[in-house]
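Hey team,

Filing this mostly as a record. A colleague (T.K.) asked me to run one chain through the structure pipeline before their review meeting, and I want the input and output archived in the tracker in case anyone asks later how it was produced. No errors, nothing strange. Just documentation.

Input sequence:
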Amino acid sequence: MSTTYDEMPAMQREYLQRRAVLLHQIRQYLANYGFGADLPTALSMAMELGLNVWEIGPVLIRLDTCGEIVYWGGPRAGCSYRLRRGGQHPDDIALDRDVRVKIKSGQCQQGIPLLTGILADRYDLLPPQLLRACRWLIADRLIAHDGNGPFGPGLYVVRRVRPGRNALTV
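Output structure:
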């Protein structure tokens, strides 16, 4: 059973509010940089914004997971660049291309679930990053999430690839 916002302890509500404010603040800060532009490190951002670097890291990870930036963690490591709206994260290209090839060749057939755990491990992605990596496959209606699939909830192959369609590039 889930807890509503009003039923949450005050500290948890404050944390969620703080995180939402930080997310908005960092999105506004990053909007000053062009698509593909090198971005400052988390440490530089924290100093410039007057924030704690340990608060910024999780927000940058979330923006990376959403596909808005490319972020290679740590306070001194930084965002490589801001992704163009509709751009594909570089960590997702190989997975996208391989799944398309497997669907086109018939190795992944309609109605069969994608083995997301194996894919995540093979491409070194966390579960939320795997969903980011699959978003173009979902948008092209090659796969879809089925909460009541024959093998349980998961991502299932919906149809075959049209000839000539390749993975998007950055």
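Quick notes for T.K.: Residues 10-30 form the longest helix (21 residues). The two ends are 41 Å apart (CA to CA).
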